[in-house]
Amino acid sequence: MSESYTYRYPRAALTVDCVIFGRSTGGTSLLLIRRKSEPFQGRWALPGGFVELHETLEQGALRELEEETGVRVARVEQLRAFDAVDRDPRERVISIAHYASVEQAEHVPRAADDASEVAWFPLTALPPLAFDHARIVAAALERTGGTP
Length: 148
Known about the structure:
Layout: E1 13-24, E2 27-35, E3 44-45, E4 48-50, H1 57-69, E5 77-82, E6 93-103, E7 115-122, H2 133-143
Parallel strand pairs: 1-6
Antiparallel strand pairs: 1-2, 1-4, 2-3, 2-7, 5-6
């Protein structure tokens, strides 16, 4: 995409967020990152970020997941769009959330990129989440019938 375009109307930014459930004998956990930067620096959040112009939504979700956590999955399923006008204090951002369920023992995360820390949290003991990520997790649990 080498051409430049100017639009009359402002455009929203597009991001992807990943809800990754980890199954183990102890129950189900959720993969979270601790944000390295503002907004919400130091708060726990879902792995995710801005979609690049050359990639699909799924490619962006898989890339962001691997960049921030080191976790690689074959595919993620699109959950839905989250578009509250004030969901991100930086600018107008629409996020397309994705989810997957993995065997937790097969995915040992390591923090990188925008994450200062990464960890699996039991679904019964989630910390307060940045942005609207609690709503995204709730929607993923509803989609999976509460048993991801």
